[in-house]
Automatic annotation (TrEMBL):
Keyword Transport (UniProt): yes
Alphabetically ordered keywords of this record: Cell membrane, Membrane, Transmembrane, Transmembrane helix, Transport
Matches recorded under InterPro entries: MetI-like (IPR000515), MetI-like_sf (IPR035906), UgpAE/MalFG_permease (IPR050809)
A GO biological-process term: transmembrane transport
Keyword Plastid (UniProt): no
Topology versus the membrane: Multi-pass membrane protein
Transmembrane segments: 31-53, 91-111, 123-144, 323-342, 363-384, 422-442
Annotated region described as Disordered, given as residue ranges: 1-21
Family (UniProt): Belongs to the binding-protein-dependent transport system permease family.
Protein name (Swiss-Prot/TrEMBL): Sugar ABC transporter permease
Organism name: Streptomyces kasugaensis
ABC transmembrane type-1 domain sequence ranges: 87-441
A single Gene Ontology CC term: plasma membrane
Length: 451
């Protein structure tokens, strides 16, 4: 009786002592499980399995889809310069973007844990996740605009630069044609003839911007001074015409604040700055027989900021926009892991005399390692297929420099030179790149389940 009752109380999945076999929880009807799984399997096959198989098949044919080319499309992946650039950029993305996003998320999660306004800060950092990649691309296309009046990044760069660097007094100015003053390289201008105290060394210029002449005085012809070489720098242009070239006419403005150098054998022997009336004076004992040079610093173009979307910086700039979006995602996941961390271990470390940096490095980070791996792997899979930000932010002149595999797949399959065979090969190659990361993630999930 007790044996019968104990057998009745056994769970459904227990081993049947009489048969010696594990009972089937479906009651011997496996078709029930198949019926439940069938809709999911059909959808998975239609949306995932069939596209993968067709892409592999299509990658073995040429652009027309009729000529079998074997692995030639895969060989072109490593011979085409544009695709190789895309592959290099993908490597940069995979290494930099997930690492920076995870690191910032860890820092934000740890630092905001003890502050009262930490929740509000986390909300602000996570908020970019609420907008689409398309919207983020449009936002950062404006942020990185070259014009400081439109681009926030360059507005800040110009403000900082202008705070510590003096602007050029007359950007864009140049000598009058046929004057003795000629371009001497690097944006500087130098007289062809040597100067002497016997006659003034005048420096007529043109192409001065009207805004740079606000408050300028009438130019004055420099008179002789004992032991000095003198001259005048002025705008050799009379409003309304009628002026004489090389002569200071009434109404012509002085160019004050210009740096004037006397150069002998490539060496500066004396220098001066033009006064409010445009005149300057150099000691004759050093400047006699020298040539007069106006340095390039007098005419340097106004600083307009950094060319963020140029070929050199376009990829780091786009990665910056990605980090802006996904650092909040990393922070929220890490903060959740931090909330479940045993506080007794942290307190024990403090009791043992560890400082906060030691606790962070030797206790917090090791305990958060599983969460950090989840975040890192998720972001790596995400950046391998990055497309939207690059497509929206990179201007036409920098698209080749910012190219990534997903964008190249789109261009090869639907661009001007349509080659679906090559596009399919890129898609298969991209799948092969994603699979190792997915495998690592699945192994990690299996290990977590065994614990």
């Amino acid at each position: 009786m007790s044996d019968v009752q104990s057998g009745a109380d056994a769970p459904a999945g227990a081993v049947d002592g009489r048969a010696g076999k594990r009972r089937n929880p479906l009651g011997g009807r496996p078709w029930v499980a198949a019926a439940f799984l069938l809709p999911a399997l059909v959808l998975l096959g239609a949306l995932v399995g069939y596209p993968i198989v067709f892409s592999v098949y299509r990658s073995l044919f040429d652009a027309s889809g009729h000529g079998f080319v074997g692995l030639d499309n895969y060989g072109e992946l490593f011979s085409d310069d544009g695709i190789r650039t895309a592959l290099k950029n993908n490597i940069v993305w995979v290494v930099v973007a997930p690492t920076v996003s995870t690191a910032l998320g860890l820092i934000f999660a740890v630092l905001t844990e003890r502050v009262r306004w930490g929740t509000a800060f986390k909300l602000v950092v996570f908020m970019p996740m609420a907008i689409s990649m398309l919207a983020a691309g449009i936002i950062f296309r404006l942020v990185y605009d070259q014009a400081p009046e439109r681009g926030v990044a360059n507005a800040v760069a110009v403000a900082v630069h202008d705070t510590f660097a003096d602007p050029a007094p007359f950007p864009g100015a140049k000598p009058r044609p046929n004057a003795d003053l000629k371009a001497s390289g690097g944006g500087a201008f130098t007289t062809r003839s040597a100067v002497s105290a016997a006659s003034p060394a005048n420096l007529p210029l043109v192409a001065v911007q009207p805004d740079d002449l606000r408050g300028a005085r009438q130019a004055v012809a420099a008179g002789p001074r004992p032991g000095m070489i003198t001259g005048t720098a002025w705008l050799d242009f009379t409003r309304g015409g009628g002026g004489r070239a090389g002569v200071i006419d009434p109404g012509e403005k002085a160019l004050a604040g210009l740096t004037v150098e006397a150069v002998k054998d490539g060496r500066v022997v004396a220098s001066a700055t033009t006064a409010a009336d445009g005149t300057y004076a150099l000691p004759a004992d050093r400047a006699e027989g020298a040539r007069i040079r106006l340095p390039a610093a007098n005419f340097a173009a106004a600083y307009h900021g950094v060319t963020w979307l140029g070929p050199a910086l376009v990829t780091p700039a786009i990665i910056g926009s990605y980090v802006w979006m996904w650092a909040g995602f990393a922070m929220v996941l890490i903060a959740a892991g931090l909330a479940g961390m045993p506080r007794e271990l942290l307190e024990a470390a403090r009791v043992d005399g560890a400082n906060e940096w030691q606790i962070f490095r030797r206790v917090t980070v090791p305990l958060l390692a599983p969460v950090l791996v989840v975040v890192l792997v998720t972001l790596m899979i995400n950046v391998l297929k990055i497309f939207d930000l690059v497509y929206i932010i990179a201007p036409g002149s920098s698209v080749r420099s910012a190219n990534v595999l997903a964008l190249q797949l789109f261009q090869s399959s639907f661009g001007t030179d349509v080659d679906e065979g090559l596009g399919s090969a890129i898609a298969v190659f991209l799948l092969l790149l994603v699979m190792p990361v997915m495998y690592v993630n699945l192994r990690r999930i299996q290990k977590e389940r065994r614990r």
